Amino acid sequence: MEQQTVVLIHGLWMPGWEMTLLRYRLRRIGYRVLQFNYATISKGITEHADDLALFLQRQVNRPVCLIGHSLGGLVALALLQRYPQLAVTQVIALGSPFRGSRMAGAVVAWGSLFRRLFGSSWQGGLDGRESLSVPTGCRVGVIAGTLSWGVSWLVRVLPQPNDGLVAVDETRVEGVCDHILCRVSHLGLLLSSHVARQIHYFLVSGRFGVREQRCDGP
User: Fold this and answer.
1) Residue-range domain boundaries for the chain
2) Is there a contact between 157 and 151 (Cβ–Cβ < 8 Å)?
3) What top-level class would CATH report for the domain 5-205?
4) What pLDDT is stored for residue 11 in this prediction?
5) b/e map of 190-199 (b: 16 or more CB within 10 Å)?
6) pTM score
7) How do 178-182 and 88-94 pair as beta strands?
8) Residue 201: alpha-carbon gap to chain centroid
9) Which of 84, 131, 155, 187 has the most beta carbons within 10 angstroms of its beta carbon?
């Protein structure tokens, strides 16, 4: 039986190595796992989606599933909208602020110097001004964290529940097949064995294995 191909897409400011444990767990289950790395602040969301499309065309000659963490989920959804002809069958977003990031907005409001921290990822991406929805023909699932460990303790702009960086209400997007909450932090979405199992459940069935329940622990 041919291995199912999964492509991981990291989040803002990340190099990709933080997805190592998730990559290992998915490979142990039996998936063929690739990593798409990109300079997160040097280009906008649509440009990253264009680069991802080239990556898929060069690296993958079969149907593929995308797993995007944080900003990576926005890139994956932008790819679906811009390249409906690509054979992307499923997308799973982990803590992705589809409705914009209050945290990023609060930092940007401090001044132009802080605005540069987000580069081109702010406008049309983290600012939430672009209307994102799920195109027909692809199953999309979202996992949101509810363990508020992160800079939310310093920049108190996030409503509860949140994962320390992204509020649950920011992860909502029209047209998804399933949306669940797991009691992990933003980074914990990549470290939790429970989250890895939920990803597997979705890739197999198009639904997650739990519904609005706790998914504690690494």
Assistant:
1) 5-205
2) no
3) alpha beta
4) 93
5) bbbebbbbbb
6) 0.91
7) unpaired
8) 17
9) 187
